[in-house]
Amino acid sequence: MIEVNGLTVRYGKKVALDHISFTISDAEHLVLMGKNGSGKTTLLKALLGFVPYSGEISIDGRSLRSMGRREMAREISYVPQIFSSTYTFTVGEFVSMGLYSITKDWWQNNDGITEYLDMVGISDLKDKMINNLSGGELQKAVVARALAQDSRYILMDEPTAHLDIKSVQEILDIISHFQDKSIVIVSHDLNPVNKLNGEVMLLKDGRIIFKGKKEDLSFADMIRETFDADIRKLGDYLYFPLT
Amino acid sequence: MKISNYLFTILLVLTTFVNVLASLAIGPVHISVGSIIRNMYLFLLNRDPNWTVSTIVFYIRLPRIILALIIGIVLAISGLVTQTIFKNPLGDPYLTGVASGAAMGAAIGFLVAPFLVPLLAFVFAMMAVGITFVISRSGGEFNTEMLILAGISVSFLFSAVASYLIYIKIYNLRGVLFWLLGGLYGATWMDDFWMFIAVVIILPVIVYFRREFDIMLMGDEQAKSLGVNTSRVKSVTLILSSLVTSIAVSFVGIIGFIGLVSPHIGRKIVGESHRFLVIVAPLIGANLLLASDTIARSAPGGEIPVGIITAFIGSPVLIYLLYRRRRV
Q: Which is nearest to A143 in space by CA: A23, B233, B229, A125?
């Protein structure tokens, strides 16, 4: 279980996260939503130890601050936003990097990743160069790399942004099958909420305004409160009837 | 692909031997390869070799050849480290201010006492690097963007002082210019010994971090999340590579292009992964510098600074590589 207590992150004078507290249970799927600048990416970065923070983050009672990078990587893996890559590594090598926290000789362990490539359905791309992948394929490779890390928690930053509809469906399908992992998805897109069974946490101006089951959340309230958007105008974006 | 990488590495080692033999043969006194090998054999067994040939080979050409190889290795490694850490293909060993620091130290040396040039070059190179590092360290970690900007700023400052001293005070402009463009003249076994120690310090460290380098190409945040202690890798490799580059520069002046070009050529052939690159790039650097130096010292009309030759060879190679990349 990850416990967050009184977490505050400041960028200069700007308070990005303001004394927030919550927990992430084992095997919980949590979608973290909020409009741009609400602090959701900052929260992810704090959980990954990328930004200095005050307050306390602990995993099973152990403070994050007392852990080394490798130790942290054994607990939490990260699916960043990558739109494209210019590096000439094969998919196999790229995914193998996920093994680094387990064995420093990650690149000699090419067989250890077969299972993870299978799980996201890209086994046939193993010897392809990552700079030749489509956006959807690349996102799957990043998810496979996070799985190879074999951690209990996976944090995902906008995994469905910049993907076409089919890829969004595939990625969410894959994620929803990881029942034994805790997954935190940061999103300002409604797809993950619809697709995943789990909790929703809404952030606004660096504070949590809701955390709970999505069934307990009024869609209209969420649009209004979290995004400051007008729900009546949402209809404007539905060009096609959904039948 | 893997087999061809091993093959290429072996080929590169063989090329180095051929390169060394050619360089031993070429010079004001032409010595045939057969004579070199025969005399080496006799000299090492103490069986009355031809002393003229042996002196040229063992006390003039060989120390210089070995210095060229080692300096080539050092510059290529430092270039590779800079390009990897900064994730910038334009990275070269002098990015952190080594060159301008050394230039300023050398300028002071030429004014005060020429025999102090190497020492002052080293001291001021380290000073420039130190200032760059202090400016760009935040939160216990090197900020790579800050490092580039700080390196450029510090370089301009030290260059300005060097230029001022040279413009106002120094009349031996040709001597200064020769030093600034780099040259391996007058190499001794003692130089080789000290440079060898520098290589022994840095090469194992760079080879050790080859796995981390690959992951760090993905960016700092990804590398951290995968478990790499980026701050440690950056500090250790940048400080060490700046140190050995400063030592190299204090021995032979500021030789350009080797550090920039060698990693690029290596990447084109063995790919991005450092598992081969940490061996291939230094070998390419060694061969490039040795070949350049052989040309520089046998130039018609007397020796010219080797930096001119490395630039002549290096820039078309780099342009060719860029041209190929654009077509792909």
A: A125
CA distance B220 to chain A (A): 9
Q: What is the DSSP-derived secondary structure letter of residue A21?
A: E
B133 Cα to chain A: minimum distance (Å):
21
The size of chain A, in residues, is 243
Distances (CA, A) of B139 to A120, B135, B212: 38, 12, 21
**Can you tell me the distance from the alpha carbon of B66 to that of B24, in angstroms, rounded to the nearest whole number?**
11
Question: At which residue do the structure tokens 């983050």 appear?
Answer: A57
pLDDT in tens, B207-242: 999 999 999 999 889 999 999 999 999 999 999 999
Orientation angle between helical segments B306-327 and B258-270, nearest 10 degrees? 40
CATH number of A2-237: 3.40.50.300
Domain boundaries, chain A: 2-237
Q: Please provide the size of chain B in residues.
A: 328
**pLDDT, tens digit, for every residue of B248-301?**
999 999 999 999 999 999 998 888 889 899 999 999 999 999 999 999 998 888
What's the rounded Cα separation, in Å, for the pair B103 and B176? 9
User: What one-character DSSP code corresponds to residue B203?
Assistant: H
Task: To the nearest 10°, report the CA torsion of B260, B263, B264, B267.
Answer: -170
Considering only CB atoms, A107 lies closest to which of B211, B227, B229, namely B211
Rounded to two decimals, the ipTM of the complex is: 0.90
- A107/B273 touch (CB, cutoff 8 Å), yes or no: yes
Per the model's pLDDT, the better-predicted residue between A221 and A4 turns out to be: A4
Asked if the Cβ–Cβ distance from A89 to B226 is below 8 Å, we say no
Hey, which bits of chain A come out as E strands? Answer: 2-11, 14-24, 29-33, 54-59, 62-63, 76-79, 153-157, 182-187, 199-204, 207-213
What CATH number is given to the structural domain containing B253? 1.10.3470.10
B294 HSE (CA, 13 A, CB side): 20
- Structurally, how many domains does chain B consist of? 1
The A29-33 sheet, strands edge to edge? A76-79, A153-157, A182-187, A29-33, A199-204, A207-213
* Tokens (6 digits) for B15: 């090329």
Q: Are A222 and A216 in contact (CB under 8 A)?
A: no
Q: In which domain, by residue range, is B138 found?
A: 2-84+91-327
